[in-house]
Amino acid sequence: MHPARQRFIELIQRPDNRLPLIEAVLMIAWEDQGRIDLRAALDVLDQLAQTAAAPVAAAADLHGRIHALNHVLFTQQGFYGDPQCYDRPDPANSYLDQVLARRTGLPIMLALIYVEVGRRLGCRSMDWRCRAIFWCVAPIPAKMCTSIPFAPVRSGAAPSVCSRSPRSTAR
Questions:
Q1: Theoretical Cys-Cys bridge with 41: which of 8, 70, 97, 155, CB 3.0 to 4.6 Å?
Q2: 58 and 126: one domain?
Q3: Contact between 56 and 69 (Cβ < 8 Å)
Q4: Residue 169 forms beta bridges with which residues?
Q5: Domain residue limits at 61
Q6: Are 147 and 166 in contact (CB under 8 A)?
Q7: pLDDT (tens digit per residue) in 84-122
Q8: How far apart are CA 129 and CA 124, in angstroms?
Q9: Number of structural domains the chain divides into
Q10: What is the C-alpha separation between 160 and 169, in angstroms, rounded?
Q11: Are residues 13 and 59 in the same domain?
Q12: What is the DSSP letter of 152?
């Protein structure tokens, strides 16, 4: 059995609240690609969190922290959803190490990065929900704030969930 598969099996046997999801997803990439630089992928997530730390900490509330994280990941770092990911599938869009390196991938991979960077910053209230696409959801009293990590920000685009834009919208 491939060592990545063995490690994956060990990881997924843990209770949900102790499952290192990032490591498990990297094990899938390792087995499928033959090898990956696990430490490098984890370092990229650390660097993203370090880059976002000051802007997120400076925000006054959860809504502001989400906007700050959106700005860092989607504007400064350039993450975006590959618009061809369903028409012309590319396996690299589903390998976390490749998505981190290329800054593009499937919505679920971008949501995973978003939630993980938020978790590393102490934003543990972020969650994700599956609808037609993946949303990162943060409960804010009296409203729900969602961020859809897929399309790049387009100047002049309406801040609408329907635009599939990575900005947050309050409902």
A1: 97
A2: yes
A3: yes
A4: 146
A5: 46-170
A6: yes
A7: 777 778 899 999 999 999 999 888 898 899 889 988 988
A8: 15
A9: 2
A10: 7
A11: no
A12: P
